[in-house]
Amino acid sequence: MASTAWDPQGYQKLARLLGRYPEAAIFRRFGSLEMITLLSLQAKLVVLEREFRDICYQDDISSVAEVKEHSTYFLKLHGAQAPHDAQLKKLDEIKEAMKEYYDLLTRSAQVAQLSRPENHQVRFLQDWLEGEQEGKDFLKLKERFTWHSQYQEDFVTLVASKSWINPKLLDFFHWLGSCTQPNDPTGVGPQDIEIGRVRDFDSSRLVTFGRVLLRILVTVLASMLPILAILVLYFVRPTLDRIAVAIGFTAFVGLFLIIFTSASIKEVFGATAAFAAVVVVFIGSANGT
Q: Is residue 81 helix, strand or coil?
C-alpha cells in the first residue's frame, strides 16, 4: 500500500507543534489546586502531630512497663503488639502522610522554578489554536478555556524565550520579507501539513537586515555631525563655552569612529583633527564677526 501524507488533527497536531517548537510548549501549573492540596496535607499532618503527642503522653504514663519504653527504645516500639501498638500505628500513618506532603512540596518547588511565558508566546499559541489552517479551533466545551488569557499568571513554559527582539519588530521583519517574495503573500512560508503555517524566525536574515540598517544610520549621522556641531556653536555665544562644546563634539567624533567603524587609531586621529580644524575655523570667523 502506498504511503500517504497524514494530516493530524486536534491534540495530535498540537503535540507536533510543541515538539518542534518547545518555546511554544505552554502549560497550566494549576497553582490554586496545588496550594489547596498542600494546605490540606499540611492540615492533616497538624492533626496527626497532635494525636501522636497525645498517644506518646499516654504511653509515658502507662502502668505497663513495656509500653513506657516506647518513647526511649525504638526496638520495643517496632515490636509492639495490639492493644499497645497505638503509637506505632500513628507513626506509620504520619510517615505516609509526610511522604505525600514532601513529594508534592518538592515538585511544587520545581514547578515554581519554571519560566513564565512572554505575552507574545501565549498569543502565538492562541492564534495557532484558532487558525483555520492550523489548530482549526478544535478545543471543545470546557477545554476551550485551557489557554484562555484569564489564566495568564498560571502559565509556565518548558523553554524560556531567548529572543531579545521586540515581537512587533519580528512581525515587521516577516512582513518585509513577504513583500519581496510574491509567491508567498502571507510571509509565513509553505504550509506544513503536520502543524499548519508557522512563521519561522531566521536570525541570520534579521542580523543582516540590522547590519544594513545600522550602516545607513551611521552614515547619515556621520554626514550630519559637522553641520550639527556648527549649528550648536552658532547659538553658543561665549568663546570659552564654544571651545568646550567643540572639545565635546571632537571627542564624540573620535568615539563614534572607534565604535561604529573599523578605522585604525591613525585614521581616527586624522579624522578628528580635520573635524577640529573645521570647528576652529568656524569659531574664529564667528568671533571675528
A: coil
Distance CA 92, CA 80 (A): 13
* Pairing, β 155-157 against β 26-28: antiparallel
What is the model's pLDDT at position 207?
64
Contact, 87 vs 77, CB < 8 A? yes
Can you say whether the dihedral through the CA atoms of 111, 114, 118, 121 is positive or negative? negative
- Rounded Cα distance between 259 and 249, Å, is 15
> pLDDT by residue (tens digit) across 261-272?
777 888 888 888
Beta-bridge mates of residue 9: none
Residue 179 has a pLDDT of 47
Cα–Cα distance for residue pair 192/200, rounded to 1 Å: 12
Look at the chain and count its residues: 289
8 Å CB contact between 23 and 156: no
pLDDT at 132 over 80: no
DSSP state of 117: P
Among 20-24, 57-61, 140-144, 170-174, name the one with the lowest average pLDDT.
170-174
C-alpha span between 145 and 199 (Å, rounded): 25
- Helix boundaries (H) for the chain: 10-20, 31-60, 65-68, 74-78, 86-112, 119-130, 167-179, 203-235, 239-260, 265-288
- DSSP structural state of residue 69: G
When mean pLDDT is compared across 68-82, 210-224, 227-241, the lowest value belongs to 68-82
